[in-house]
């Protein structure tokens, strides 16, 4: 299986890859995974790195950005797979942090690619997006969402609501895990929490 890896706002494919390499090869239960790290679709002027879409606290704008970015990201993934000589129906995993995690969840629900696993760190889908989403095929996808007790930007409630929505689609198995004491910023600690035994979110 090939994992598509999407960094968060103000990061880059290179920086995100370095975090995963620091966590070791067995992250997410894969001993020898193939990972494709992608740069965000836009330059981020503050950090000088990349982003997938502009920062906003408004959920309607987040939803619009996801609807715009999703098809473009799917086209980019398909192009990169073709360049690498990988068959279009190869099983894919998709993971991401923050903005990248939102896109990972959106693409897992859309199922325009053959996504069989998804992992989202400090990420959720805004309600206006879920209300107008057009999900794809049902069943066969394993989704894991990770939120932290100390994340001031992405709290448990919207992540839990996203997990419930995904379950309502009969997408497959959906688990929401809470990890203790991690800030929003991505680090190997997020990966180690996912590789270990994070605390399941109570209903």
UniProtKB/TrEMBL annotation:
InterPro entries given in the database record: AB_hydrolase_fold, PLipase/COase/thioEstase
Pfam families per the UniProt record, alphabetical: Abhydrolase_2
The keyword Transport appears for this protein: no
Keywords linked to the UniProt accession: Hydrolase
Coiled coil: none
Gene3D superfamilies: alpha/beta hydrolase (3.40.50.1820)
Name the record gives this protein: Alpha/beta hydrolase fold domain-containing protein
Natural source organism: Rugamonas aquatica
Signal peptide feature range: none
Molecular-function GO terms, alphabetical: hydrolase activity
Domain Phospholipase/carboxylesterase/thioesterase: 4-193
